Amino acid sequence: MNANVAIQVLPHVSTDEEVIKIVDEVINYIKSTGFTYYVGPCETAIEGDYEELMEVVKNCHYIAIKAGCPKVASYVKISFAPEGGVLTIDKKVTKHHK
Q1: Residue 98 above 90 pLDDT?
Q2: Would the N or C end of the chain have less CB density within 10 A of its end CB?
Q3: Which of 53, 94, 69 is nearest to 10 (CA)?
Q4: Coil, strand, or helix at residue 69?
Q5: Which pTM was predicted?
Q6: Contact 46, 5 (CB under 8 A)
Q7: How far apart are CA 57 and CA 3, in angstroms?
Q8: Which runs of consecutive H residues, i.e. helices, occur in 1-98?
Q9: What percent of the chain lies above the pLDDT cut of 70?
Q10: Checking DSSP bridges between strand 72-80 and strand 36-39, what pairing results, if any?
């Protein structure tokens, strides 16, 4: 693993219910990728290979559009170490959830 990404998808829709529906679709897609992930209240973190994660980020936008969102924005945070050594999700958050 040489990267982790945190993505917050922001659908441009009218209601909170629509936001939840679209974000749930994006999270379901992330779950289906097989990458280790962590869903937080404001973003989802994913870890894996940098190039593959960039495809996931791109596809999150397509999933939101397909789910009925006419326009979408995202905040994306990337931690990348080409030779590996990026801190894992587990090392970052597990101690705070026991």
Answers
A1: no
A2: C
A3: 69
A4: coil
A5: 0.93
A6: yes
A7: 13
A8: 16-32, 50-66, 89-93
A9: 100
A10: unpaired
What's the CA angle centered on 97, arms 40 and 50, to 5 degrees? 50
> CB–CB of 46/35 below 8 Å?
yes
| CA pseudo-torsion sign 6, 10, 11, 14 | positive
Q: Which domains does the chain have, with CATH numbers?
A: 3-96 (3.30.70.930)
Give per-residue pLDDT as tens, 37-94: 999 999 999 999 999 999 999 999 999 999 999 999 999 999 999 999 999 999 999 8
CB atoms within 10 A of CB 2: 17
What does the alpha-carbon distance between residue 17 and residue 4 come to, in Å, rounded to a whole number?
Answer: 29
